[in-house]
Amino acid sequence: MSGYVSRYAPRPGTIEPLGEHGRTVSAAATEAVSIELRRIEQSFGQNRVLRGIDLDVPAGQFLAIVGKSGCGKSTLLRLLVGLDRPTSGSLRFADRSGDTVEANARTVFQEPRLLPWARVVDNVVVGLGQDVDENTARVKALMALDDVQLSDKADQWPARLSGGQRQRVALARALVSRPGLLVFDEPLGALDALTRITMQQLVSRVWRELGFTAVLVTHDVSEAVHLADRVIVLDGGKVALDLAIPAHHPRQHGDPDLAVFERRLLDAILGGNCCELTVGPITSIGS
Ligand SMILES: Nc1ncnc2c1ncn2[C@@H]1O[C@H](COP(=O)(O)OP(=O)(O)OP(=O)(O)O)[C@@H](O)[C@H]1O
User: Fold this and answer.
1) Where is each ABC transporter domain found (predicted)?
2) What string of pLDDT tens digits covers the 287 residues of the chain?
3) Is the distance from the beta carbon of residue 75 to the nearest atom of ligand 1 less than 6 Å?
4) How far apart, in whole angstroms, are the C-alpha atoms of residue 144 and residue 169?
5) How far is it, in rounded angstroms, from Cα 89 to Cα 232?
6) pTM for the model
7) N or C terminus: fewer CB in 10 A for the chain?
8) Is residue 286 in a domain?
9) Is residue 198 within 6 Å of ligand 1 at its C-beta?
10) Do the domain assignments include residue 125?
11) Is residue 192 in a domain?
C-alpha cells in the first residue's frame, strides 16, 4: 500500500461546488440515477402492500423511507433496485451511462455479509463483479477502502474487525463499482449508538463527495433527518407524508432545527390514521 495517497487530501481542481446544502462532488463522482414511479402496486396474494405509489427521485437526491413495521418499506426498496417487479404500475430509471438499474445499483444491508475466508480487500473486490483484471480490481478496492477510512485493514480477516468496521467494508464493497444508486436497508440497525453516529457521518460524507442517488430505509427518524434531503412516510400502502429537509450538510446531532423535522415525522408515523394525510414538501424550518 506504499505510495497510496488518500483521496481526501486536498487536490486542486478535483472538487467542484454543487451549491446545494453544502454538498461538494468530486471529479470521481458517479453517474447518479433518477427514478420515476407511477401508480406502483405490489400485492402478495390478498395482501395489497403498496397501493398506487407515485414518486420522483431526482439524480443525486438522498431519500429516506420511514414508517411502521410491515408498512412496505423493504418491498418498495426491492422494487427500486430491480430485485422484484411490481404487480402493476411503471418504474423508470435514467442515468447518463445508459446502464440498467441492476448494473448500476448496490445495496448495503443490516448484516455486512462478508466472506469470512477472504481478506478485507478481496471482500471489496467482490463488489466489482467478474470483468476486471486483478491489479485494477485491487487498486479500485483500495480506493473504496480509503473512502471508508479503512485502508489500513486491507489485508485483515473479517473476523478480526469490529462490527462497525465490518459494516464499513460492506459500504466499501458497495461503493467500489461507483454505483449511480446506493440503497441502504437498515444498514446501521445492528450497531451501538456511538458507532452508528460515526457511520452516519461517513455515509453522509461519501454521498456528498461521490454524488450517487441514495435511498435509505430506517426505523430511526433521527437518522433519516440527519442524512436525507427528503423523507417519505409510508402508511397504508401510500406515501402519507413527503417532507423536504432543507438543512445544510454536514448536520449536527442534537441540532434543535432538525428536531422539528423529527417531531413532524413521528407525528405522521404514530399519529393514527395517517394514510389519509397528504402534506406537501416544506421549504423552511418550522413551517
Ligand atoms: N415475498 C413476500 N411474500 C409474501 N409477503 C411478503 C413478501 N415480502 C413482504 N411481504 C409482506 O409485505 C408486507 C410489508 O413487508 P416489508 O418487509 O416491506 O415491510 P417493512 O416496512 O420493511 O417492515 P419492517 O420495518 O418490519 O422491516 C408484510 O406484511 C410482509 O409480510
Assistant:
1) 35-261
2) 333 233 332 222 222 233 355 555 554 556 788 999 999 999 999 999 999 999 999 999 999 999 999 999 999 999 988 889 999 999 888 766 666 666 788 999 988 999 999 999 999 999 997 777 888 999 999 999 998 999 999 999 999 999 999 999 999 999 998 999 999 998 888 888 888 888 899 999 999 999 999 999 999 999 999 999 999 999 999 999 999 999 988 888 888 889 999 999 999 998 744 343 333 333 222 32
3) yes
4) 9
5) 19
6) 0.83
7) C
8) no
9) no
10) no
11) yes
Into how many domains does the chain fold?
A: 1
Q: How many CA atoms lie within 13 A of 256 on its CB side?
A: 0
Partners of 108 in beta bridges: 184
Host domain of residue 65: 19-113+181-276
Whether residue 167 is contained in a domain is answered as no
The domain that contains 73 carries what CATH number?
3.40.50.300
What ipTM did this prediction achieve? 0.97
If one residue of 44, 80, 185, 239 were mutated to test the ligand 1 pocket, choosing by the most ligand atoms within 8 A of its CB, it would be 44
**What are the grid coordinates assigned to 62, written together?**
438522498
For strand 88-94 and strand 34-44, is the pairing parallel, antiparallel, or unpaired?
antiparallel
Phi, psi dihedral angles at 231 (to 5 degrees): -125, 130
